[in-house]
Amino acid sequence: MTGARTGKLFVSAVVACLLAGCNPFSDARPMMDEYVERVGRVLDVEPEFSDIPASEQMPRRRNRVLPMPELELGMLDFLSLYRCELQYVVGEKNSVMGKVMQPGNRLRYEVRFIRTAGDCLITVDEEGLQDVLKQAIISKREFLPIAIWNATWGVEEVETLFTLAKGEYPVEATDPLSDLARNARQLNKAVTALLEQDLDVDLDFLGQVHQRWQAEYRAGQLINSAHLVTARLGDATHLIRQRLDNRPLCLNGKPNNQADIVHGMFFSIYIGKIQPYLADLRRARTDLIEPLSELAAMQVDVMPAHFQGWYESTLALKGNKSIWANLDKAVTAHTTSWQTLLEQCGLRPGV
Predict the structure, then answer these.
(1) Is residue 17, in this structure, part of any structural domain at all?
(2) 1, 123, 244, 289: which is deepest, by most CB within 10 A?
(3) What does the pLDDT look like over 9-41, one tens digit per residue?
């Protein structure tokens, strides 16, 4: 689609929006489009709107869940006959409900098994049984990271948190991410301990985390906003550079009427509207995306191949593929362009 045609479609949309009495600065997408339009208008440059890259969907659950190795049936049967608490733990696993455990419950079972087997080992005198218990503990500890992965990134609930169907992160969001952020920090602390084979961890909170993930969709909104803002800041930067490459805004560093208009738009729209939204995105990224990125990074040893590419683009904060690194670059480039433009008129901002 040509820039002229895109511009006409955008103007038509803006006219329809105004006739309907809506405020383009109340939602992220019309706000960013309006910003590009106004930058072009005050600089006398025809605005062009680039395509916003499609956000990448989280891999399907069948590509996220790892197969969980089981103890040999004979070993389980043997342990289930031994009269200590482990008998009841193994019995629960062999029950009808135990065979369809959800990932969170399976993680709790694995931790409880290792703890209980260790307690039983202290009381065992028979050498053959000692060997069986020791082998069972070694096996369970070896595969504990798989149970941890499945209880975090393998659950269905995380798909709602990362759904892309709920648009962009709200402008002036009224519901802070404090609960999600607190859950993420708590989960990271527990996973760190478990990966270090510290099993004195209370996992009762895990169900609450999954429930909140299923009720929220902020991570997906933040991903959508990262793509939107990166694209539209790039469009606005392109307009500013076009003006810089052609006739100067001011001659000999002296402001003029147009410079005053540009300067006013810079403060009223960029500083007054766009920067607060950028600050909200940075804060939300710090509160939610960063701990989730850490949650995935600390499990990289068992991370499925299908998940790796999505992690590098969507969760990782650095790297050529990272949407967050690209957003940071877009903000930096846009800020530099504004500074260079307004410096021509002796109005260089300290943004």
Answers:
(1) yes
(2) 289
(3) 455 455 445 443 578 899 999 999 999 999 999
233 and 114 in a common domain: no
How many domains does the structure of the chain reveal? 2
Asked whether the predicted pLDDT for residue 132 surpasses 90, the reply is no
Cα angle for residues 347, 27, 23 (degrees, 5° grid): 80
Query: Could you list the residue range(s) of the whole structural domain that residue 215 is in?
Result: 1-65+155-351
- Helix, strand, coil content of the chain in percent (nearest 5): 70, 0, 30
Q: Closest Cα to residue 281, out of 339, 337, 228?
A: 228
How far apart are alpha carbons 65 and 50 in whole angstroms? Answer: 37
Other Cβ atoms within 10 Å of 77 Cβ, number:
12
What confidence category does residue 96 fall into, taking pLDDT thresholds of 50, 70 and 90?
very low
Q: What is the pLDDT of residues 48-84, one digit of tens each?
A: 999 999 999 999 999 999 999 988 756 666 665 566 7
Place of tokens 């940071």: 328
Burial 97-117 (b: 16+ CB within 10 A, else e): eeeebbbbbbbbbbbbbbbbb
Distance CA 127, CA 135 (A): 12
150 part of a folded domain: no
Helix (H, G, I), strand (E, B) or coil at 254: strand
Q: 251: which strand partners?
A: 254
| 76-to-118, 285, 313 alpha-carbon distances in Å | 15, 45, 42
- Rg over alpha carbons for the chain, rounded to the nearest Å, is 28
What's the rounded Cα separation, in Å, for the pair 99 and 93? 6
Dist. CA 123–CA 9, nearest whole Å: 78
Residue 230: inside a domain:
yes
Domain boundary among 121, 142, 163: 142
The last residue of a domain, from among 142, 176, 200: 142
Judgement on whether residues 60 and 87 belong to the same structural domain of the protein: no
Tokens linked to 249: 């805004």
User: Model-level pTM greater than 0.85?
Assistant: yes
